[in-house]
Write a structure and sequence with these properties.
By secondary structure, the protein is mainly α. It is 48% helix and 5% strand.
Length: 327
């Protein structure tokens, strides 16, 4: 399957968007969801304690669910995920050119990261309902809407035999058998990320954009019936104590002391195995390998936090995890 950037896929005329377009788009969706997880995990690990940890971790779990559901949709129509063949690079843009100009990096939780990375990744298709502002460039939500429209128009047949099922903390990655189920699955992904056009939540939980925005504002988002508007005037959310992790360089820390390099290698080995197992899970339709991937993800936390607790000699801040596949 030839790779095409999402911005290029979005420029294809609607009359030319068939099954090949859908396969390419869903392959890009898998990569897009994967790319969010390392930066969100790093921010979560950097928080020493407090309720903000739980808020970010819930977002991470839902992004894992989104990636798994996108992989099911892709394999269901005869495609193959490209999880370890084109892994994300940090700092770098989102896969496919979504949100042009946005550079996603690896760093500890800061107000700047919340505003300029996390909230920009999750930016709603029609702008935040609190701000009532639209944008002209492609958002993740606009991309998923286009996929929904093509599924509705082409009515593809979904093969469930190549799909996997997994419960991720209450988020059920399901096998998809019909176009209607596929469209509904994508709607869940959209609403968990950006909310609906009229509400910042997806059922009972705030969408990701508004979770990050609450942390940034330092207060919960509440609806004022007297004005009909949502405002950040609810219970305070104190900004937590965090490990001071600046943006991790694209090549990591080649001059770090030997003991730091050993920890980095431990982290990278677990990350490489994680991506390999995720790829193998859907290529071989192997739920055991998928379970192993979840174990691999847990193995990342110990070396990551060890790095975050280690000051950079002669520099500012502490080391951070180096998300380099095969490093």
């Amino acid at each position: 399957m030839a790779n095409r950037r999402i911005v290029e896929l979005m420029q294809v005329h609607e009359s030319q968007r068939g099954i090949p377009w859908l396969q390419q788009s869903l392959a890009s969706a898998v990569q897009l969801e994967l790319a969010t997880i390392p930066t969100y995990l790093t921010a979560w690990w950097s928080v020493k304690e407090g309720s903000v940890q739980g808020l970010i971790f819930n977002v991470v779990l839902q992004e894992m669910f989104h990636m798994g559901q996108a992989a099911n949709l892709l394999t269901g129509i005869g495609g193959t995920p490209e999880i370890n063949t084109d892994p994300p690079v940090y700092p770098g843009p989102l896969p496919g050119g979504v949100r042009p100009g946005l550079i996603v990096d690896i760093q500890g939780l800061t107000p700047d990261w919340l505003e300029n990375v996390a909230m920009q990744i999750e930016y709603p298709e029609s702008g935040p309902i609190v701000l009532y502002r639209g944008e002209s460039y492609p958002t993740i939500g606009a991309f998923y809407t286009a996929i929904q429209e093509v599924i509705a128009a082409t009515q593809p047949t979904f093969d469930t035999s190549k799909q996997l099922e997994l419960n991720i903390a209450g988020n059920q990655v399901k096998a998809v058998s019909t176009p209607e189920e596929a469209i509904a699955a994508i709607q869940v992904i959209k609403e968990q990320g950006e909310g609906t056009r009229t509400s910042p939540d997806a059922g009972t939980e705030l969408a990701h954009y508004y979770v990050f925005s609450e942390i940034w504002h330092g207060a919960t988002l509440v609806f004022d019936p007297s004005t009909g508007k949502w405002t950040y005037t609810g219970d305070p959310i104190p900004f937590p104590s965090v490990y001071p992790v600046d943006s991790v360089p694209v090549n990591g820390y080649p001059d770090a002391p030997e003991e730091v390099q050993t920890t980095i290698q431990q982290f990278q080995s677990a990350y490489t195995l994680l991506l390999d197992n995720l790829q193998s899970a859907w290529v071989n339709t192997d739920p055991t390998t998928l379970s192993n991937a979840i174990i691999n993800m847990s193995a990342l936390q110990t070396p990551a936090i060890a790095l975050m607790q280690t000051p950079i000699s002669g520099g500012t801040g502490n080391y951070g995890p180096v998300w380099i596949y095969g490093g």
